[in-house]
Design brief:
The protein is built from ten helices and 13 strands. By secondary structure, the chain is an alpha/beta fold.
């Protein structure tokens, strides 16, 4: 494999130049297993760990390597034969799909990095959900990658055209591909995105068919698949970790575990971008601070009454806006707390210094 085969480009080469001059090598993260990383390199597949310096100097969890990252590596003479390396740094990312990390802490979790195209997979079964598609679209645009909506399970859907039209109404200008991964119908529509060196990530909730699609594109059963529940079409987590695979076409595909709940992370601009219809309507409201509820002259409510706008779409828009406001509040509180803790440390140090010097 060459670096170009792995998605290398001029931007990465420019960032790597100072390291190359010092004799470092470069690799791309294919799998993350706790403290170990499996890398694709020109020398083959390597296992790597972080240097102590990297761990000590890296405070933000989102700065640690993730699947799709390009990392600067060093190999000692006794490590070359063992296919092991040390990760010294992570090169700047050209794109990254982020979400709010689970738990009480306000922090971003990087799901995958350096992606060219995001396949947003949705099943055309009982789990079909326009509101979830809107949420994925917001985060996809925020990532810097290009989204493509893939509507899977067309073979078991009786109203394919109707659902496709409904998605078109909320995904302005985003390509929509309808197929059946299980029956291998219309998979050729994906070919334009699966070119050598291109990186694609599959995103969607459990049971939408990401692993089945991966197996079909790979030409072998590399991912375990399970059937979904018949009553609500919800699936179980068959993919338990993010993995980057090389397709026969030469493209690189990142399969991710199903994410039923995707919490937003700093995506207010993308929220506005996805809901341009609501933003445009709001400009015609009589009052600038209109809450779009019972105010007189509300263009949003008028559009709902006329059928031009769905009340559910407005509700999802407002929900996403509230989530963004919450993230900002949490960030401000955390920043204030960090500042307070830092000044307490400084004050304590000064007092101890004065005490030691008998000032």
């Amino acid at each position: 494999m060459t670096l170009v085969d792995l998605g290398w480009g001029d931007t990465f080469a420019h960032s790597f130049a100072p390291y190359a001059a010092q004799g470092y090598r470069v690799g791309r993260v294919a799998v993350v297993h706790r403290s170990q990383y499996h890398l694709y390199t020109e020398q083959g597949t390597l296992t790597a760990t972080l240097t102590g310096k990297f761990r000590h100097q890296t405070q933000n969890p989102s700065d640690f390597p993730t699947v799709g990252d390009w990392v600067v590596i060093y190999m000692q003479a006794d490590q070359i034969q063992a296919d092991q390396a040390l990760i010294e740094a992570v090169l700047p990312r050209k794109s990254q799909f982020s979400r709010q990390a689970a738990g009480p802490r306000t922090a971003a979790q990087i799901v995958a990095a350096n992606i060219d195209t995001l396949f947003l997979i949705s099943g055309l079964d009982h789990d079909f959900n326009l509101r979830r598609i809107e949420r994925y679209l917001v985060m996809a645009w925020e990532s810097g990658a290009s989204p493509v909506i893939v509507l899977n399970k067309a073979d078991i859907c009786e109203d394919v055209h109707q659902k496709q039209m409904a998605v078109e109404d909320i995904a302005f200008g985003v390509p929509i591909i309808t197929l059946s991964a299980l029956r291998q119908t219309h998979l050729e529509a994906l070919a334009t995105y699966l070119k050598p060196g291109q990186t694609i990530a599959l995103l969607g909730s459990s049971g939408v068919g990401k692993s089945t699609l991966t197996n079909q594109l790979m030409g072998s059963n590399v991912q375990t698949t399970q059937t979904v529940r018949t009553d609500d079409s919800k699936g179980r987590h068959t993919t338990t970790s993010r993995t980057m695979l090389r397709l026969p076409t030469g493209a690189l595909m990142i399969d991710t575990p199903g994410m039923r709940e995707l919490q937003l992370w700093l995506a207010e601009d993308s929220v506005d971008e996805i809901f341009t219809d609501i933003e445009s309507l709001a400009q015609a409201c009589q009052f600038r601070d209109c809450q779009h509820q019972s105010e007189p002259g509300c263009a949003i409510q008028a559009a709902i009454e006329s059928g031009e706008l769905s009340e559910k779409r407005l509700g999802n828009y407002q929900k996403l806006q509230r989530e963004q406001a919450y993230v900002h509040r949490r960030q401000n509180q955390q920043s204030q707390s960090n500042t307070k803790a830092r000044w307490k440390t400084i004050t304590k140090t000064i007092r101890q210094y004065k005490k030691d010097k008998n000032v």
